[in-house]
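Quick one: examine this chain and its backbone structure tokens and tell me how the chain folds. Here goes:
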Amino acid sequence: MKKRILVVDDEPSIVTLLTYNLEQAGFEVLSASNGEEGRDLAIEECPDAMILDLMLPKLDGMEVCKELRQAKVFIPILMLTAKDDEFDKVLGLELGADDYLTKPFSPREVIARVKAILRRSQYQQNRISDVSTEDVNQTSIGDLVVYPDRYEAYFKDKLLELTPKEFELLCYFLQNKGRVMTRDQLLSAVWNYDFAGDTRIVDVHVSHLREKIEENTKKPVYIKTIRGLGYKLEEPKDG
């Protein structure tokens, strides 16, 4: 069955360009020309991924992303922005977008990024479908307990609301507990980029993850920053 991609953009030329290239790559495409329509389609149709423009009529991309995450709709979102503005990129990621691209973009790069987020999403779905009630995979560190097969994470017995990318990043840290991971390593492993990416994506997701598992984000005890190198997940020290 073809994967369905929802394209939300108010520029007909962009929608036509993306629709053509996505269909050529083997995807089925849904489209919307404003934020409200895009939000409603995402909830009703449950597409496999969403390409979401930042500047939209009726409801902008930021608000669409925020409302979908609040509604617990966690489909992967690739955000498009005409602004080369760091604030917009960071805010979009913090609201739950998985990735972003700045216009003008290459259709080839859009396809590559869509395929990357779909690979990660499919991997997690496969793990969930394979879970056995008698044999549950569990990983814990301090007060943090993660069930990769269930796609669930708990901190002090409270279920964490994580975006797909935050969950993948957390699992990768756990798989490499105690090891220093560079931003490029994390970008390659979690985002599956085969080309140069923006490591700021990693920083934003680490920051957002810390907000959910750290008592004090200014003095993290789980995800440590290793100056000049990257990040490391380690067992919190008592006292």
Residues 128 and 149 are 5 Å apart (CA to CA).
